[in-house]
Amino acid sequence: MTHKRVHNFNPGPAALPLPVLKEIQEEFLDFHGSGMSITEISHRSSLFEETIDDALARARRLLKLSDDFHVLFMQGGASLQFCMIPMNLTFPGRPADYINTGVWSTKAIKEAQIQGKDVRIVATSEDRNFSYIPTEYTVDEQASYVHFTSNNTIVGTQWQRFPDGGGVPLISDMSSDLMSRPIDVKPFGLIYAGAQKNFGTAGVTMVIIREDMLKRVPDNVPTMLKYTTTRDNKSLFNTPPTFAIYVIGLVLTWLEGTIGGLKEMEKINRQKASLIYEVIDNSEIYQGIAEHNSRSTMNVTFRLPNEKLGQRFLAEAMRNGFHGLKGHRSVGGCRASLYNAVTLDSVRTLAAFMREFEEKSLRG
Ligand SMILES: Cc1ncc(COP(=O)(O)O)c(C=O)c1O
Questions:
Q1: How confident is the model at residue 364 (pLDDT cuts 50, 70, 90)?
Q2: In what order do the strands lie in the sheet with 205-210?
Q3: pLDDT digits over 94-131, tens only?
Q4: Could you report the per-residue pLDDT of 27-75, keeping only the tens digit for each?
Q5: Is 318 exposed, middle or buried (0-12, 13-18, 19+ CB in 10 A)?
Q6: How many Å lie between the centroid of ligand 1 and the Cα of residue 284?
Q7: What is the reported pTM?
Q8: How far apart (Å, rounded) are the C-alpha atoms in residues 106 and 155?
Q9: Whose CA is nearest to atom 7 of ligand 1?
Q10: Which residues are within 8 A (CB) of 199 and not within 5 positions of it... i.e. 6 or more apart?
């Protein structure tokens, strides 16, 4: 049976690689000869243990993690990390530094403020509607950490070179670009990302935490909210999101095997983004929203000259099989999310459609 599949540019949850979806389908009723699906087996079974261990090993290999980093699978999304980070990782009486590049950074800041932490906003791009990545900031050398969002999913800006914490551990929300490019993890104390954009399905958050950060966790943090609980119990303190962890394993297998690792993935992602930026830069009707030197390879944002043409573009795109192109409600306009599983072919097809739409609309 063949299925009609669309060109999926959803911002998250987002496209999964077709071979992964097919593999899920194929082994769903009888997972590895168990006579059960992955969602029906115990999280304490050896079969699940193999599944989680495989996903963890692949994550470590792809990101080239040394032994002083732990990979944890947690629940509560990136949003729970906003509150757990200040709760677990601030030193009493010392500031927590934040760089504000948009809605998600703002939410992270709010959760630290709610807890009465000494939050310092060391840079912000709010003055121009978060359309750029700030380059000027001074991190307090006494700071517990410096937090930033590596890719602003909503406006479409991305740090191409990470901030310099000057020895203060970096903490980053990489929800919309973890596993899309290689990263040097050395300056990081913690990295976190929901899986549902670049490497899996909703329900699980990957947390990469450096060993020394775990020593900061205060005793009076509730058990489920301590990073040490997840680390000590190998992400199995309570019932984990088993299906979502299984899907991560499959996507990481695809990333390692079919794609050939994060360097290769980055090349493809750059190629995809430049196809759409090229259309925008040579257009009389599409106007990029993010400033040039801050543009994201993951979320390409643009506007049309007026609301009516914008609506027509989105409606016509939908009729032609392009889904998820409507911009975030706080920004408006359009957004093409080009995460790992979005194919070059889909992006080429979108670029051609955008050109045709422009020609037609200029002809009147
Ligand atoms: C950069 C960023 N941070 C955080 C979130 C929120 O993640 P979650 O829904 O997993 O809590 C999102 C969701 O789109 C995001 O793009």
A1: confident
A2: 69-74, 205-210, 188-194, 170-173, 146-149, 96-100, 119-124
A3: 999 999 999 999 999 999 999 999 999 999 999 999 99
A4: 999 999 999 999 999 999 999 999 999 999 999 999 999 999 999 999 9
A5: middle
A6: 33
A7: 0.98
A8: 14
A9: 78
A10: 178, 179, 193, 206, 248, 251, 252, 255, 340
Tokens standing for residue 311: 């609506």
How many angstroms separate the alpha carbon of residue 209 from the centre of ligand 1?
18
What are 115's two structure tokens?
Answer: 């807890």
Which of 73, 111, 152, 176 to probe ligand 1 with, by most ligand atoms within 8 A of CB? Answer: 176
Active-site residues: which are they? Answer: 104, 173, 197
* Spatial distance between the Cα atoms of 241 and 243, rounded to a whole number of angstroms: 6
Cα distances from 206 to residues 75, 193, 195, 199, 233, in angstroms, run: 9, 5, 7, 10, 15
Q: What is the secondary structure of 276-300 as a DSSP string?
A: HHHHHHT-SS-EESS-GGGB-SSEE
Q: Kindly give the number of the ligand 1 atom that is closest to the alpha carbon of 152.
A: 1
Quick check: bond before 134 cis, omega within 30? no
159 lines ligand 1 (CB under 6 A): no
CB of 320 closer than 8 Å to CB of 353: yes
Can you say whether the dihedral through the CA atoms of 240, 196, 79, 63 is positive or negative? positive
